[in-house]
Task: inverse folding
């Protein structure tokens, strides 16, 4: 006879105690990463190497179990921090500390007799008053270095990012990659930059991975996998006989087409190379269209009624120079029409604005817009260890996100100071509030807002604060407000959990 499955049901005050205990355990780890005195954490990697983390979201992921009543709160926290990271690029540790501070204070008022549902509603209603409180903390001046250093706590990295951002402020114009060495390097590109697959079609095995350069290059863009050049071979012969350079950018090369490029280059030193975009699917179509607009080419595709055998010289684009290296093809001084490029960028930016809830899609669109502008860079971030390199890459992304947010909204004091000032303002507001429910809600949000400064101070211990002497901690005003609103929303959601089943 099969035994019946049984579950343990935890309700009311006991459920809230279980949630609060789990949240405090989580924030004990997550909060340790806050501020200039933050600590990195090491996790047991099992049979593999130990795992290092200094990111609030990454710590939450590693301390969260997949099942059990005690894991529910941390799983909710982890999902909320993922949303914060995706939208803001930073702020996960601050969000966690504030949310738990709000929830902990709320449980005291509930124990005193307030209904959780009513307190939840009162806390959420305070969100409409938060923008004015944060706006009151706004500073008059900002400094890119201080903003970057506040976000990444790495002076060498912050200086590199601040200097680069001053030249390339458009979002998407700067890519960040982990380097093999320990240095920080910057590569600037002027022209249209296309990410391509490592293999250069037509080059020999010995040539793969080398740098290819072509002057006065013509560009053929094909939205298909080319298997046979057919009558296009006649045009290829003309390029060979006249010593002209041709780059064929297509979705792929196979069969006879691949062999033709390899044989002709080997026998005639023909200046023709095949390139395949790194993007796939619909994204590949978009970047091929961008390349056409940038170089003045016409996309060749059966779907548009243009067969590869019917290619005419007028369908080719051009650029003053092409450099292919490290998975990138840089078309310098592309000859596309300036007004057409401007219209294309306007369209791409409009699409990006509509993708506010799909951050990955939005970032890809912003990146395309920046590359159409014709000026971009790659920041290579290295370190002595793999752990440190990963941390620096995360810090670079956080710094770039902070600089962009500052451009849009200005700055407030960092290091938890702005949050503490908001907490003080809320405390004063509570003194003039006759409603017990509203006063309790204000006390909850004030407790959460003050938690960040308290955690940073705890992390500092007896430190002399050398980091604060070297720079002025400042944060984007919009990010500060968003973190506060995320924390309020998260804590209010937790208050609605009255039953745990395990």
Result:
């Amino acid at each position: 006879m099969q035994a019946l499955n049984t579950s343990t049901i935890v309700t009311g005050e006991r459920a809230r105690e279980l949630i609060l205990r789990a949240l405090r355990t989580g924030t004990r780890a997550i909060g340790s990463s806050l501020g200039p005195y933050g600590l990195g954490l090491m996790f047991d990697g099992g049979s593999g190497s130990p795992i290092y983390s200094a990111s609030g979201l990454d710590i939450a992921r590693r301390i969260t179990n997949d099942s059990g009543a005690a894991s529910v709160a941390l799983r909710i926290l982890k999902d909320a921090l993922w949303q914060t990271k995706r939208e803001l690029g930073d702020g996960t540790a601050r969000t966690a500390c504030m949310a738990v501070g709000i929830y902990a204070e709320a449980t005291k008022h509930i124990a005193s007799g307030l209904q959780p549902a009513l307190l939840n509603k009162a806390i959420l209603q305070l969100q409409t008053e938060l923008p004015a409180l944060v706006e009151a903390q706004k500073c008059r001046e900002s400094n890119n270095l201080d903003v970057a250093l506040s976000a990444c706590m790495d002076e060498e990295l912050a200086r590199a990012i601040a200097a680069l951002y001053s030249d390339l402020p458009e979002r998407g114009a700067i890519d960040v990659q982990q380097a093999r060495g320990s240095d920080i390097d910057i590569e600037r590109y002027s022209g249209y930059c296309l990410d391509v697959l490592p293999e250069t079609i037509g080059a020999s095995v010995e040539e793969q991975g080398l740098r290819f350069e072509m002057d006065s290059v013509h560009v053929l863009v094909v939205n298909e996998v080319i298997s046979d050049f057919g009558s296009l071979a006649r045009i290829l012969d003309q390029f060979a006989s006249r010593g002209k350079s041709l780059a064929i950018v297509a979705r792929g090369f196979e069969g006879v087409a691949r062999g033709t490029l390899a044989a002709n280059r080997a026998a005639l030193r023909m200046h023709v190379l095949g390139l395949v975009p790194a993007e796939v699917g619909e994204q590949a179509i978009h970047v091929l269209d961008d390349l056409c607009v940038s170089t003045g080419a016409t996309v060749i595709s059966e779907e548009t009624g243009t067969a590869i055998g019917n290619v005419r010289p007028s369908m080719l684009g051009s650029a003053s120079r092409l450099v292919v290296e490290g998975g990138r093809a840089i078309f310098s001084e592309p000859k596309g029409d300036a007004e057409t490029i401007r219209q294309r960028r306007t369209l791409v930016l409009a699409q990006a604005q509509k993708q506010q809830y799909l951050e990955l899609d939005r970032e890809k669109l912003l990146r395309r817009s920046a590359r159409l502008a014709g000026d971009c860079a790659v920041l290579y971030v290295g370190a002595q260890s793999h752990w440190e390199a990963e941390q620096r890459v995360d810090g670079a992304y956080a710094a770039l996100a902070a600089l962009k947010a500052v451009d849009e909204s200005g700055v407030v004091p960092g290091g938890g100071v702005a949050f503490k000032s908001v907490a003080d303002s809320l405390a004063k507001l509570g003194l003039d509030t006759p409603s017990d429910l509203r006063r309790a809600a204000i006390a909850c949000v004030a407790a959460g807002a003050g938690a960040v400064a308290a955690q940073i101070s705890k992390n500092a211990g007896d430190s002399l604060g050398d980091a604060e002497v070297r720079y002025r901690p400042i944060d984007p005003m919009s990010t500060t407000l968003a973190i506060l609103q995320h924390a309020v929303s998260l804590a209010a959601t937790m208050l609605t959990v009255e039953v745990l089943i395990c």
